[in-house]
Amino acid sequence: MVSKFRALKVATALRTVDLLIRYTPLFAHKDAPPNVLNLAGGGDFTTVGDANIAALVSLADLSAGDDTLEIGCGIARNAYALHRKFGDSVTYAGFDVMKFCISWSNKYFGADKPNYSFRYSNMTNSMYNPSGEIAPSEYDFEYPDASFDLVFATSVFTHMQEPDFYHFVNEALRVLRPNGRFYFTAFLWDDDAERATKSGEAAFSFKYQAQDSRLDNREVPDAAVAHSRSKLLAHLDTLGGQPPLIINGGWRRKINKQFQDCVLIRKAQ
């Protein structure tokens, strides 16, 4: 009953905000969304966005001329940073389950930028879209095969259950061109993560098992999810291509570095 009541409250609040964005000037901002709408995790909107794009440049070879897709684009934090860095020399498509984020991004950021587009995807998520109609494991990306040079997702798979996660990995690789790059952040569960959680060094406990993944909060299962590193590697091995680059994040020891684990996959030719 508590979970259903919470879901109703969240859905009502999100719907109200979306209507206010679409039909009133209440949230009109040009350089960045108002702070009250910035739900894209901690940190300064501009600083974090610039850091994410810098990571894509250094780790995923993001460069002018790339066609890019962002999974879980939120309220255009990375799109703003991408435009600051590359302007219209790249193309950008983003999709998200939070309708108000898409409404705001299209109205106040993308309206005068034809190379940048935002799409609402009505998927279920216990954190961000509890009234969604499509299970993520059944959602096929609304883009043709081999459309992008780079697909990326920051702090998205940390809020996604195991079947949904693997479906999204497959879909990301589908829409990538040969030699394309897929960069994402995640919490990966392995022996080191287990030691860190048991010792209390980690930022999360991940006490609850869900298939081969781990949950931090059983009441809100999408709040924080850690996925099995070994299962991910085995899954990617079946798809061919190079072994992924994986960089452990600071969440394991509460240290001041890239908080989430980083993964870079290069699609086979």
Automatic annotation (TrEMBL):
GO terms for biological process: methylation. Residues 69-184 form the Methyltransferase type domain. It holds the Pfam family Methyltransf_11. InterPro entries: Methyltransf_11, SAM-dependent_MTases_sf. Its EC number is 2.1.1.315. The keyword Cell inner membrane does not apply. Gene3D superfamilies: Vaccinia Virus protein VP39 (3.40.50.150). Keywords: Methyltransferase, Transferase. It comes from the Bacteria. The keyword Transferase applies. GO terms for molecular function: S-adenosylmethionine-dependent methyltransferase activity. It is an enzyme of class 2 (transferase). SUPFAM superfamilies: S-adenosyl-L-methionine-dependent methyltransferases. This is 27-O-demethylrifamycin SV methyltransferase. It comes from Falsiruegeria mediterranea M17. The lineage of its organism: Bacteria, Pseudomonadati, Pseudomonadota, Alphaproteobacteria, Rhodobacterales.
